[in-house]
Amino acid sequence: MTTPSRRRLMRDFKKLQDDPPAGVSGAPTEESIMHWEAVIFGPQDTPFEDGTFKLTLEFTEEYPNKPPTVKFVSKMFHPNVYADGSICLDILQNQWSPTYDVAAILTSIQSLLDEPNPNSPANSLAAQLYQENRREYEKRVHAIVEQSWMSFAEEEKELRSTSLAKMHLRRAKTMVRLELMVPTWTNKKSIG
């Protein structure tokens, strides 16, 4: 059943594919168009540069009238990101408008990485360090940037090993099929 929210999400996805904003990517999961996975690349010339940060977006049937629930899956050290990955961003709360689409959400979050709002902190330590000890703040951000590389490297390794296992399983199944067929061919040849 196609609902207005699902049609809108299909349009959002098409727009992201046809005209992708720099440094962000997102797509619905195979299970549901209402559940998206996204990646934001750390903006250049910021402490987040070179980071690769994963997020999830959960939509309800009230979208676009209500914002999605957006969370970082990747570990994040930022004044406006809670420990559970939830994001304190006005457009995801009281400043939401149905005109915002997935591309606007992701680019707004990417901008937030560079321009945090320490006056509305979700992480008080990050906000305090951002205001009072920028060197320590950036040191901690660099650590999570490195962690973002490691998590992607681990996932790629797991994906490769899973793909390799699937390939070996396919080969094994093919060999079993061939072995099961050989007696049939042998019997037919000896009969004929």
UniProtKB/TrEMBL annotation:
Its EC number is 2.3.2.23. Residues 4-150 form the UBC core domain. GO terms for molecular function: ATP binding; ubiquitin conjugating enzyme activity. Keywords: ATP-binding, Nucleotide-binding, Transferase, Ubl conjugation pathway. GO terms for biological process: DNA repair; protein modification by small protein conjugation. Gene3D superfamilies: Ubiquitin Conjugating Enzyme. It is an enzyme of class 2 (transferase). The keyword Chloroplast does not apply. CDD domains: UBCc_UBE2A_2B (cd23790). Residues 1-28 are annotated as: Disordered. Pfam families: UQ_con. It comes from the Eukaryota. The active site is at C88 (glycyl thioester intermediate). Belongs to the ubiquitin-conjugating enzyme family. This is E2 ubiquitin-conjugating enzyme. It comes from Globodera rostochiensis.
